[in-house]
Specification:
The chain is an alpha/beta fold and 347 residues long. 46% of the residues lie in helices and 14% in strands. The strands form three sheets. The chain has a four-stranded parallel β-sheet with strand order 2-1-3-4, with helices on both faces. A four-stranded parallel β-sheet has the order 6-5-7-8, sandwiched between helices. Strands 10-9-11-12 form a four-stranded parallel β-sheet, sandwiched between helices. Strand 9, helix 11 and strand 10 form a beta-alpha-beta unit. Helix 1 crosses helix 2. The longest helix is centred in the N-terminal third of the chain and has 21 residues. The chain binds iron/sulfur cluster. Iron/sulfur cluster binds next to loops.
Length: 347
């Protein structure tokens, strides 16, 4: 007697497998038809709930691949996703990423219900400084223009003059009239920006707070040297949250989107991506002809997302899953983001 085949589940499993087949960036996790058959009922349920709720799912490139390829409507870095939040018009946004990103979505889509799968999804960078600590820093440098990296809380944004991303930080800082810049919260990115502006002949004094990303801070020049010795012709691609000595030893330094474009557009036998493993997984799925050698690292916060939590947040969000921001905070925190859109509209 042959087993009864559930056709929608089988079709969904085959769709998932086509997207996930080449993804091999987490130890012990590979994809086959059996695994995709187990996932398929859940992705089908989430996609049905999404339509019923008038919801969209925004997924950061660093979350689990079954979210990215199973249920996400938009996938990218925090800047790309914030632009989608701004223009989506959806009644509900499920933000599979970390909490500061969902806060940014709420700032830009105040009428939408914005939910997170896991409220514990913090960020070592965003959580490195509070609004009160920034107020104290500002008092020490009253003439400085305050520039916050988008990886910051709404409270920190509300104390800032302009927000930036890793893709537009140089152009925006170069355009600011002030010479003295107070840059929060990424100390390593501040150093990389300082060097790049010097190289461009832009005279700025950049004072930084002391945060780092626990993923990117852990890469080392020794790791690059070892990989170059093992893989002749290797191209090393790094994110600006990496330490300056790592940035200096890389072949290319750029935002998440720029890293993807570089790998896609470069003919080289091997690539080493110094960033979160999710981006490696995306390239394995979307550019399977590229040979990516190991070396990426996992963000524990991003990995707190999961399909079941996405489903629960969509179906009946608990209070802790819903992002709420007081009106006054929202009005102050959205201003630096709107200023960023004015200063770098095409990024
Ligand atoms: S990868 Fe780094 S910057 Fe991104 S959420 Fe994780 S800790 Fe924060």
């Amino acid at each position: 007697m042959s087993a009864v085949v559930d056709e929608p589940v089988e079709a969904e499993a085959e769709r998932l497998l086509r997207a996930l087949l080449h993804v091999d960036c987490e130890p012990g996790r590979t994809w086959d038809l059996g695994g995709c058959r187990r996932l398929a009922p859940l992705t089908l349920e989430i996609n049905t709930l999404k339509r019923e709720r008038g919801a969209v799912i925004l997924a950061h490139s660093y979350v689990e691949p079954e979210i990215i390829y199973g249920v996400a409507d938009f996938v990218g870095d925090s800047y790309y996703l914030s632009r989608q939040a701004r223009r989506t018009g959806a009644r509900m946004i499920v933000f599979a990423g970390v909490v500061f990103m969902a806060e940014t979505a709420k700032l830009l889509a105040p009428d939408a219900t914005v939910v997170v799968p896991d409220r514990g999804a913090g960020c070592s960078l965003a959580d490195s400084i509070t609004g009160e600590q920034l107020r104290r820093l500002k008092a020490l440098y009253p003439d400085a223009t305050v520039v916050c990296y988008i990886n910051s809380t709404a409270e920190v944004k509300s104390e800032s003059d302009v927000c930036v991303t890793s893709g537009n930080v140089h152009d925006i800082i170069a355009r600011l009239p002030a010479r003295r810049i107070l840059f929060v919260p990424d100390r390593l990115m501040a150093e990389n920006v300082r060097r790049e502006l010097q190289r461009r002949g832009v005279d700025k004094e950049i004072i930084a707070s002391d945060g780092t990303c626990l993923v990117h801070d852990a890469f080392t020049p020794e790791q690059i040297a070892a990989a170059r010795a093992q893989f002749p012709g290797l191209r090393v691609v790094a994110h600006p949250e990496c330490p300056p000595e790592v940035a200096a030893a890389a072949d290319f330094l750029g935002s998440t989107g720029a890293m993807m474009r570089y790998v896609r557009g470069t003919d080289a036998p091997y690539f080493l991506l110094l960033t979160e493993c999710g981006l490696v997984g995306r390239l394995q799925s979307e550019a399977p002809d590229k040979h990516l050698v190991g070396g990426c690292r996992l963000c524990p916060y991003m990995k707190l997302n999961g399909l079941e939590k996405v489903r629960d947040a969509l179906r009946a969000p608990r209070p802790d899953q819903v992002i709420t921001l007081a009106d006054d905070l929202r009005h102050r925190a959205v201003r630096p983001i709107e200023r960023m859109f004015e200063l770098a509209p095409a990024d």
